[in-house]
Amino acid sequence: MKRPDHDDRTEPACSIARTLEVVGDKWTLLILREAALANVTRFADFKDRLGVAPDILSARLGTLVDAGVMTKQPYREPGSRTRFSYHLTPAGEELRLILAALQQWGDENRPRAVGPSVVRRSADLGRPVRVAFVDDTDTTVPTDAVKFIRTASYPS
Amino acid sequence: MKRPDHDDRTEPACSIARTLEVVGDKWTLLILREAALANVTRFADFKDRLGVAPDILSARLGTLVDAGVMTKQPYREPGSRTRFSYHLTPAGEELRLILAALQQWGDENRPRAVGPSVVRRSADLGRPVRVAFVDDTDTTVPTDAVKFIRTASYPS
Q: Contact A143/B22, CB-based, under 8 Å?
C-alpha cells in the first residue's frame, strides 16, 4: 500500500531505513518468509511453524497489517469460532525479492553440506532463478559495477 | 568467508535465517549501508554518521568481523594513537544486493515526495539499475512468476 500522503518530516530519508521500519525484525521477516514462500495464512499455522509466542506473533502481524503489507481476514470453520488469516498485499508480494536476496546470500556464504533447502525456479520454464542487478535494458550488471549515487534530496 | 566445515546440526536449515543470524539487526544493516554504499571505514565515522552508541557500534562491528563480513585493520595518523578501520570482505560486498533490495522496496512502497535520496547506476554506462529476478539465461523473471521449491534437504 503506497502512502504518497505521508509526512516526509517524520520519515527517514534513507529508503533502507524506511523498509526496516516495516520489516527490520527477525520474527517479522520469518513471518513474511512463511507467508511469501510457503503460502501460510492462518495464525495457528504461523505459530506452529515458527514456534513463536502468540503475543509476539499477534503484535508482529498487527504491525504488518498497519503497514499495508498484509490484510487480516476473518474465516470460520464449521463448529468453530471465527478465526483470522493474513494475506500479503501487492506491496507484501514485492518483499519476495528481499527474502530471495537474503536466501541467496545465506546459500552462497553460509552453505550447508546438504545443500539449499529451498530453490527458486521460473514458474513457466522451470529454470533456476537468482536475484541480480539489472539495468533499464534488462542487462545484468555485476555487483561491483553498481554505483550508489546521492541525489539532491540526500540529507545534508 | 565461506565456512564449508561448519556444523550443520547447529545451523538453521533456512538460508534466510542463517543470513539473519549475521545481518538480522537494524543497527547492523545500517552499519553495512554506510560501509557498502558510502565507503565508510573508520569507527568514528560510523559513530558520527549513525549516531549510534560506541558500545553498540563496537559490538556490532565485532560480530561482523567474526562472521567474516568485515575485516578490522589498524591505522595510525601522525601524532595519534592507533585506531581501527573496518573493510568489507567479498562476502560483505555481496550484501549490496540485499541492501539494494531493501532500498528499492522502500522507494517503491514508502516513497518520499522529494524522491529517492540515493539512486543506483551502472558504473560504465551510467544506466539506472534495479534488483530483479533473472534466470540462468540472464532473462528477467517477474516476481509473481518465481516459485520457491523445497528440496530433499528441507526439514521434515
A: no
For residue B50, give the CATH number of its domain: 1.10.10.10
Does residue A3 belong to any structural domain of this protein?
A: no
| B103 in any annotated domain | yes
Chain B residue with the nearest C-alpha to that of A6: B112
Looking at the predicted structure, is the pLDDT value of residue A6 above 70? no
The answer to whether residue A34 is domain-embedded is yes
The total domain count for chain A is 1
Report yes or no: B114 and A97 within 8 Å, Cβ to Cβ: no
Q: Report yes or no on A156 lying in a domain.
A: no
Outline where chain A has alpha helix (H).
Answer: 15-23, 26-38, 43-50, 54-66, 90-93, 96-109
Could you report the predicted ipTM of this complex, rounded to two decimals?
0.89
- Tracing cell 513474511 back to the chain, one arrives at A32
Taking contacts as CB-CB distances below 8 angstroms, the residues of chain A near B119 are 148-149, 151
Give the residue from B19, B40, B119, B139 with the most A CB atoms within 10 Å of its CB, the best one to mutate.
Answer: B19
pLDDT tens track for B75-129: 999 999 999 999 999 999 999 999 999 999 999 999 999 999 999 999 999 999 9
Contact between B149 and A118 using a beta-carbon 8 Å cutoff: yes
